[in-house]
């Protein structure tokens, strides 16, 4: 079936099948958070992005093969409610942005900086540090050698605009980071946000000046 990226809490997961990577998207919790399970097709190693909520659903999605790693995109509480249980059940190594790790109540094994590589089997993800929604938010870019890039943006980019900021300087910082580190990717780049539907950079790029003008 064709991947749509539309998932609902309590509903079925949606699976994006790439040549080297399988991406399973599931919605969990009262804030409709997205969690993404990445599976290297060559090695079957798995990595989870955001153990946001509902550990039973996440562990059921992970299955008996477990996960090697879990990445928390940022420190806001709705993105790590299930982290302790998932780590306890799987023994996964934890990753988070260096400047957000102190705000996550599960110890971070790997502090992530801009440009760092996180591996899942033979697949490489590149971290992009984006300041504004939180001080240490990270996006993860998978530059698919067989197609277009894929980027997991946490709460830094959604269909229709950047993530929430509370101060004008935070908004300017987030917009600057997005334009310098994310919108340099091609229009075909698929965007997987922390809540809601997916989008592409091509769909969002025409609105950058509109977002800057409105200030959110």
TrEMBL record:
It comes from Streptomyces incanus. This is MBL fold metallo-hydrolase. InterPro entries: MBL_Glyoxalase_II, Metallo-B-lactamas, RibonucZ/Hydroxyglut_hydro. It comes from the Bacteria. Pfam families: Lactamase_B. Residues 32-195 form the Metallo-beta-lactamase domain. The lineage of its organism: Bacteria, Bacillati, Actinomycetota, Actinomycetes, Kitasatosporales.
């Amino acid at each position: 079936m064709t991947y749509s990226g539309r998932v609902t809490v309590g509903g079925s997961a949606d699976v994006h099948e790439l040549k080297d990577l399988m991406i399973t998207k599931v919605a969990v919790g009262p804030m409709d958070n997205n969690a993404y399970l990445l599976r290297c097709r060559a090695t079957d190693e798995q990595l989870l992005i955001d153990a946001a909520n509902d550990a039973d659903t996440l562990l059921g999605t992970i299955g008996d093969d477990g996960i090697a790693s879990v990445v928390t995109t940022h420190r806001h509480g709705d993105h790590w409610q299930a982290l302790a249980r998932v780590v306890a059940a799987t023994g996964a190594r934890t990753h988070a942005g260096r400047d957000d790790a102190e705000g996550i109540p599960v110890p971070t094994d790997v502090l992530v900086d801009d440009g760092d590589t996180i591996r899942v089997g033979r697949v490489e993800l590149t971290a992009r540090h984006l300041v504004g929604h939180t001080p240490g938010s990270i996006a993860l870019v998978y530059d698919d050698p067989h197609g277009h890039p894929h980027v997991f943006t946490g709460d830094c980019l959604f269909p229709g605009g950047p993530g929430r900021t509370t101060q004008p300087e935070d908004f300017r910082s987030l917009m600057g980071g997005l334009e310098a580190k994310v919108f340099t990717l091609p229009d075909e780049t698929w965007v997987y946000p922390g809540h809601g539907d997916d989008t592409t950079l091509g769909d969002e790029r025409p609105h950058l000046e509109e977002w800057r003008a409105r200030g959110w």
